[in-house]
């Protein structure tokens, strides 16, 4: 008989990685686990059993442009979460389900809900970032979350990387933490690289890509400046691709960066990318530029996807992202954006080591086949 598992995903239908990750989770575990997904603003797109709270999931998107917008987002998520958790609570009371995994959530509402769960229910919380750094309100917000959460003794935690694991074990019992690397894949088969370049109408180009939601803290402007100072910018063989929806920046600001730093060859797509578009872009790219993550404890969806496309990553040294690249030798690291310019010069001259063997090893090491066994062990 299959183990019953409830899955809570507040942002499954909003823009971001939630849907991709939950869909992968279901795809690889549905034969072993009887899964029911709870979400907000459902559109009946989930392949398995689904219970949705009616609402507008657009209100959960990462929109922080404007004064106080970030706090408005937190309040919306808090209110939407309570509606979702009321639905889950009613379901649990009427069923025999005793395990629930929280894939994504708003912190404070989750605390309230977990403490009201019946004692027979075993919660599993995915911790996407264990860091408590940032602005004072954010630090207080996260510190309160971890301080209160540790009072509940039967919680299990899943983290995606070693930095998050090391930080989390300082505040919760280490035996309650499982480290399961973020295995990400699209519901599309990768294309041949040259075929993908032709499909994008950029045949023969060496593509360096910045892919994903565009935020100021991701340091895209610094990366664009470093690229402009490299010899890649003057070499017609190279093309910089910037693709993703702006969040706390405007489209005009992003276009302004390209003009300000005189980027000569660029493909710009300032929209939320579909899986088909992502698949084509990852297939066509030669390098993924990940300019963020210094000192951070969160993983990167685009970085995880690199493994499926034999795509080396370029990132700053340190943090969860840099640590993963350094340990697995799946890309190239830099200290500061002046050094990024030198690294890009090395790419242009063809003097960097080949990463393909290491990427293949990482793909096997962090596959869904491996992750599936780890998840089943903790259910």
3D structure, described in words:
By secondary structure, the chain is an alpha/beta fold. The chain folds into two domains: 3-179, 3-Layer(aba) Sandwich (Rossmann fold); 193-365, 3-Layer(aba) Sandwich (Rossmann fold), CATH 3.40.50. Helices cover 41% and strands 17% of the residues. It is built from 14 helices and 13 strands. It has helices spanning 18-29, 69-93, 107-116, 136-149, 162-168, 193-199, 220-229, 251-260, 275-284, 301-305, 319-328, 337-349, 356-365, 368-378, and strands at residues 3-9, 33-40, 49-53, 99-104, 122-127, 156-159, 177-179, 206-211, 238-243, 266-269, 287-289, 313-316, 331-334. The strands form two sheets. Strands 3-2-1-4-5-6-7 form a seven-stranded parallel sheet, with helices on both faces. A six-stranded parallel sheet has the order 10-9-8-11-12-13, sandwiched between helices. Strand 4 (99-104), helix 3 (107-116) and strand 5 form a beta-alpha-beta unit. Helix 2 packs parallel to helix 3 (107-116) and helix 7 crosses helix 12. The chain is globular, with a radius of gyration of 21 Å. The model has no long low-confidence stretch (mean pLDDT 89).
